[in-house]
Amino acid sequence: MFYYVYMLRSVKKNKAKTYVGYTNNITKRLQAHNSGKGAKSTRGRFWNVIFKRRFLNKGSALKAEYLIKNNKALRNKIKKNPNFIGKLCT
User: How many Cα atoms are found within 13 Å in the side-chain-facing hemisphere of 31?
Assistant: First the structure.
């Protein structure tokens, strides 16, 4: 089973917001976020996936998610270039 780290983007009242998470089913997870059943911080917004990266195991995906969430420079690089290929945990 593969796991994915993803970044969502939403714009509300001309203010953009991003959210980073991990899942084994991006389509289902995005539907949950957009229907108000996702993370509390994502409720009330319409989200689009702007970045996703596939990992072979859950541990690697969790490390990458943590890295993106806690490294503002990396998060900004991904926001500016969703095709970012920089090194994340493998």
Answer: 4
